[in-house]
Specification:
homodimer; alpha+beta; Uridine Diphospho-n-acetylenolpyruvylglucosamine Reductase, domain 2; Uridine Diphospho-n-acetylenolpyruvylglucosamine Reductase, domain 3; 3 domains; 15 helices; FAD-bd_PCMH (chains A, B); flavoprotein (chains A, B); EC 1.1.2.4 (chains A, B)
Chain lengths: 412, 412
């Protein structure tokens, strides 16, 4: 292990690990280490020196204490579905794979909250909730661990209506680097709001594992809407699509999702997901509510899109068609990658005020063209947030350099 | 000044203050100091040693630096409308009264955001926004400074629909104790959401001035709803009123306000605001939306309240009647006080999971009775939050002792 100086120390640490969580829960195998050194991004695999699989918060705490005493880096690992290389062990160290902690605890149906361990994913929780009439709407696409979503402040297509993790985490149990266990909102508490003390919960949400290991997350739940309907609308220009978004939000339509796909992105999705939408700037929309409120939401939204020369809405009312549509949106990452087989995708994440969005997307597309780069654009436009999915040949240094220059310009 | 050791140091500090913001903006007068040592609560006045009135962030920064160099406590002061004694200079020091910084900056109508200085109150901002079709809904009752509301993580009757300050502050300019000026989300930035870096904005929201002086707040705005309607509904029991609240929220009715008043509270409001509602547990409700969605919201809510033996809704549809109703709710504090002339009100603030609310309110009322205390109860029940407004004779030590014991039990 690169981070240890002496063989004796290595043995001491490993034996401490084994005595805490048993032989089976400590792995030095190359395959296991490789698997825990990367996520779904283009970032290079940076395997940890050892992977541990604790089964409860007490084990996490004891393991952390050993790491702390030996000055070893700790890297928490959920599902590895991240897109930003956050799990890479850049200085070696110990990966805490939390998949064995997979309990769903303390579901309070009347209070709309639940507590989950790090091994519980978004889809597992929603399957568990199915008969309760409740759901957890934050949906970053991948079937990520909910504690990982808290650690990375995950967002997604529903954020315009339900908020991001920031608005939906009520409490966290966290193991600090020295093994101390804290509850950010107080032990066993699940306040809807609070102004007592510093807001530690939201300091840990988005801290990407740098402040501690999240071992439990208490989440806010929502009632499943009576009806949902999705629609697709094509536009003659980026401006027309984004203007429609701004006007729909200004009109107070409580739209649940509103996603922009540029011509390159919709083309990729058509090919990857066997769809046949016109290859022009496009909005995917979804409305949640009662039958009656849906009618009204849709009527207002359609009036606005048509005044911006949008096409008629193409409907997806039944669950299957809706799921197919949103799966296509969620698969945008793979669809982009499939545009150039053998290449890797690399996502940028830009959030700007809504009013500046059309101009920035138009400029970005121009820049991509001039830089000879493939970069379909998709965005949670309701929040002014868009992703440019760079599809890059990792073996072409000149192209990598152009990507680097492009992303630097974009960040500015 | 108690905090200074030497006369020479006092003179040096005062002369530094005067050279920064001018003779007129530094006050040692007793009346001014008294006025800045208390808020609207029962907490004893704790006057600062000196009050300064900076006019811009540069002056705040320079003044803070002087305080830092001389190890003097700094107490930021907005409007003094707090109810928890947060402005008291418990160890003396320098009060920064920020009322001279009263600019409204950077209104971005298309992006639904605006930036305000600490002298701008909630009502001033909404008056300024009147012609734009936008408003800022967080409403703690008093006409508080918006930066003060950020500092205290203010909430209010609208929180169930629009959230608290926590969800509606996008960026803060803060002067740290040593004079350093920071922007919690980056200078000039106003992201709808972000997962880049630690969430400093929400660390400062609710920090009560302990981490720095907020000199600018960037706020999220909302479209003014097409219609609003308020209703009052009386119930045979606390349980029936709270059950109705839970069921209305579970049914997904996007209620804008839902406020509980117990029999003692509604009696006080009737007397203070010349109303004539039945003296039983009561809900004040408000619905926002389009004409059509209102009809539906109201129909669902009324069906639920009637199934819980609530009375027919008493309507307040026109702006004047609505304002009268909510003014009565906002004046609950004074109404409680008026129950016992010569006494002071003292508010407790408790937030519990919704499912536990009826039991806790019933127990609290029983405890009040047994302790021979006057404590009308009002609550933002949509969040499980309620206030027991203790009306206390400050000259009766035995009563003060009973209040102390009661609040200790309540906090548990």
């Amino acid at each position: 292990m690169c981070v240890f100086v002496q063989k004796a120390a290595v043995d001491r640490v490993l034996s401490a690990f084994r005595s805490i969580c048993g032989e089976d829960c400590v792995s030095l195998g190359e395959a296991v280490r490789e698997q825990h050194g990367k996520d779904e991004s283009v970032h290079k695999c940076r395997p940890p020196d050892v992977v541990v699989f604790p089964r409860c918060v007490e084990e996490v705490s004891s393991l952390a204490k050993v790491c702390h005493d030996h000055n070893l880096p700790i890297i928490p690992f959920g599902t590895g579905t991240g897109l930003e290389g956050g799990v890479g062990a850049v200085k070696g160290g110990v990966c805490f794979s939390l998949r064995n902690m997979e309990q769903i605890l303390d579901l309070h149906q009347e209070d709309f909250d639940v507590t989950v361990e790090p091994g519980v994913t978004r889809k597992t929780l929603n399957a568990y909730l199915r008969d309760t009439g409740l759901w957890f709407p934050v949906d970053p696409g991948a079937d990520a661990s909910l504690c990982g979503m808290a650690a990375t402040s995950a967002s997604g297509t529903n954020a315009v209506r339900y908020g991001t993790m920031r608005e939906n985490v009520m409490n966290l149990e966290v193991v600090l680097s020295n093994g101390t266990v804290i509850h950010t909102a107080g032990k066993g508490r699940r306040p809807r709001k609070t102004s007592a003390g510093y807001n530690l919960t939201n300091l840990f949400v988005g801290s990407e594992g740098t402040l501690g290991i999240i071992t439990k997350t208490t989440l806010r739940l929502y009632g499943i809407p009576e009806s949902m309907v999705s629609a697709v609308c094509s536009f003659p220009s980026v401006q027309a699509a984004v203007d429609s978004t701004v006007q729909i939000l200004q009109a107070g339509v409580p739209v649940a999702r509103i996603e922009f796909l540029d011509d390159v992105m919709i083309d990729a999705c058509n090919k990857f997901s066997s769809l046949s939408y016109p290859v022009t700037p496009t909005l995917f929309l979804e409305f949640h509510g009662s039958e009656r409120s849906l009618e009204e939401q849709v009527a207002t939204a359609e009036e606005i899109t048509q005044s911006n020369e949008g096409s008629d809405f193409q409907w997806a009312q039944d669950a299957e068609t809706r799921n197919r549509l949103w799966k296509a949106r969620h698969d945008a990452w793979y669809a982009a990658q499939a545009l150039r087989p053998g290449c890797k995708a690399y996502s940028t994440d830009v959030c700007v005020p809504l009013s500046r969005l059309p101009q920035i997307i138009v400029e970005t597309k121009k820049d991509l063209l001039e830089s000879r780069l493939t970069g379909p654009i998709a965005g949670h436009v309701g929040d002014g947030n868009f992703h440019c999915l760079m599809v890059v040949d990792p073996n072409d240094p000149d192209e990598l350099h152009r990507v680097h220059l492009f992303t630097e310009r974009l960040a500015r």
